[in-house]
Design brief:
alpha+beta, eight-stranded mixed sheet, binds flavin-adenine dinucleotide
């Protein structure tokens, strides 16, 4: 590189990291800056479904649904440790959508494309099936069951960043882009290190604005440019309660307001319930679940579950802001979930990302690079659509080989507790061996921070996945925050701060 990157990306959420990975894999020199931790914006606050979006069929979003449905198995193959299939139970509710409409939607869902391994829809007799047991007896007698997938959203971001760096990209976290000046053939980007205020400049031929809910702010204040495209910020919150039922399927419940909510088995001992759709106009980093949202989610779930879900049951909430493309829809729930890529070529190219789901991040990245094609070398253009064929870090095992991976790990590390072995396999796939290395017993993993989090794992996350503070580990690289208490998290924070200082000195 001659000191000028081919591509600079602002934003380390799923879209920025996906674009960085695709570009680096094509041999381009890539720089990415993220103002906080990776996935500290919307990409750690999703419902975490790799899904076509059954509900979007009602809004005729056929392009999006088809692309998303086709992506499910592509992503599952790329990362079978952090992505896995789920079955969804959709109870028929008298007075809401008629059964024929549900059946038609699910027929389309099964046949729009891409489903090879995921099982098809089936009809359920909820008076006999175990899925009927936790529901209000007598009220919900019929239902349907269909397939989608689960993803550990924040880990997907970290693994895309890891893979991008393994392919040559430079990833800078806690680094904010504060200004970007354009000339005819390059951008000069000023960044500020949020740990010490130090400023640097970076040159790049192309600038990608993947700042999610901050996309318009970056355009206005960093780049100093107005845009005709607008972003609509829509808040969505989730609640987590102690496990509500024993089986491993999820529920999709229709509400009288025409929305749907999900209830999903979560982190073995919990149930995740979400989400809401509310227009939002505050600072995206300050979004929090409101009392009204918690009440709404409890009431919507209690409409179906025999045992009411109450606000006092809630052990954790999280909230995020959807950076939707503003298509002028009146209700927040109706605003398009499709993405729009705006390319400005009045000087060095600037590509801005509006909208985009986690499910479609890889396709969005592919389309972004296609849109930039005339600014790329012929080699980079020729390496088209490579990203779905290469596994993400730790995902280099057969798509249905997760249990075999766990069994191999347990065989080689017989002293590892079964639950911890499974958790490490889920989080790191084949790379769990990089943490366990030659350890012959638990003590060899060093200090135990609680809930099975070892010093070896913490150091791995600091070295390989840009973790710097306890929250990065307990709420994004994992969800161990559900199991660790405040004192344990403080100890972890202190340990990480000390190790970071040692590394600097
Ligand atoms: C409640 C909810 C549920 C959802 N459920 C699903 C789901 O089940 N399935 C699905 O596919 N999608 C889902 N989504 C959508 C999905 O989460 C988002 O579309 C996606 O995460 C957006 O990613 P992004 O990279 O565009 O934005 P973000 O993840 O927000 O990333 C943008 C990043 O840019 C950084 N940034 C901003 N300004 C600067 C700057 N000046 N310098 C450096 N960095 C900067 C921010 O810190 C941020 O990390 C859901 C969204 C919400 C809110």
């Amino acid at each position: 590189m001659d000191g000028t990157y081919d591509l600079a990306v602002i934003g380390g959420g799923i879209n920025g990291c996906g674009i960085a990975r695709d570009a680096a894999g094509r041999g381009l020199s890539v720089y990415l800056c993220e103002q906080g931790d990776l996935a500290s914006g919307t990409s750690s606050a999703a419902t975490k479904l790799i899904h076509g979006g059954l509900r979007y069929l009602e809004y005729y979003e056929f392009r999006l649904v088809r692309e998303a449905l086709m992506e499910r198995e592509v992503l599952w193959r790329m990362a079978p440790h952090i992505i896995w299939p789920l079955r969804f139970v959709l109870p028929y509710h008298k007075g809401l959508r008629p059964a024929w409409m549900l059946r038609l939607g699910l027929f389309l869902y099964d046949h729009l494309g891409g489903r090879k391994l995921l099982p098809p829809t089936r009809t359920l007799d909820l008076t006999r099936d175990a899925a009927g047991k936790p529901l209000k007896g007598g009220v919900y007698q019929r239902g349907f069951e269909y397939s989608d997938c689960w993803v550990e959203d924040a880990r997907l971001v970290a693994l895309n960043a890891r893979d991008a760096q393994d392919r040559g990209a430079t990833i800078r976290t806690r680094t904010k882009a504060v200004a970007a000046e354009r000339s005819a053939d390059a951008w000069q980007i000023t960044t500020e290190d949020r740990r010490n205020g130090r400023r640097e400049t970076v040159r790049a031929r192309i600038l990608v604005n993947a700042a999610g809910p901050w996309v318009a702010d970056v355009l206005a204040s960093t780049v100093g440019r107005n845009t005709s495209a607008a972003v609509r910020l829509v808040q969505g919150s989730h609640i987590v309660v102690p496990r509500l039922y024993d089986h491993d399927r999820c529920y999709i419940f229709q509400n009288a307001d025409n929305r749907v909510i999900f209830a999903i088995p979560y982190e073995s001992d919990f149930t995740l319930i979400g989400t809401t759709d509310l227009d939002y106009d505050g600072d995206p980093s300050k979004v929090r679940a409101s009392k009204e949202e918690i009440d709404y989610l409890c009431a919507a779930a209690s409409e179906y579950f025999a045992k009411a879900v109450e606000p006092k049951d809630v052990v954790w909430t999280y909230s995020g802001v959807r950076p939707l493309y503003d298509d002028g829809a009146s209700a927040a729930q109706a605003a398009t979930r499709d993405y729009v890529l705006e390319l400005d070529e009045s000087g060095a190219p600037l590509l801005s990302v509006f909208g985009g789901k986690i499910t479609t991040y890889r396709r969005l990245a592919l389309h972004a690079l296609e849109k930039l094609a005339r600014h790329l070398s012929s080699e980079a253009r020729a390496k088209h659509d490579w990203s779905g064929k290469a596994p993400l870090p730790g995902g280099d095992f057969p798509v249905q080989g997760f249990e075999a991976l766990v069994a191999d790990l347990q065989r080689d590390y017989p002293w590892l507790e079964a639950a911890q072995c499974r958790r490490l396999a889920r989080a790191y796939g084949t790379r769990a061996r990089r943490i366990l290395a030659s350890a012959k017993d638990k003590a060899a993993l060093g200090r135990d921070f609680g809930a099975g989090l070892s010093e070896a794992e913490v150091l791995y996350l600091m070295r390989e996945e840009w973790a710097e503070e306890a929250t990065d580990i307990v709420w994004r690289r994992s969800k161990l925050g559900l199991r660790l208490n405040r004192a344990e998290i403080e100890v972890l924070d202190g340990f990480m701060a000390k190790r970071a200082l040692e590394r600097l000195s």
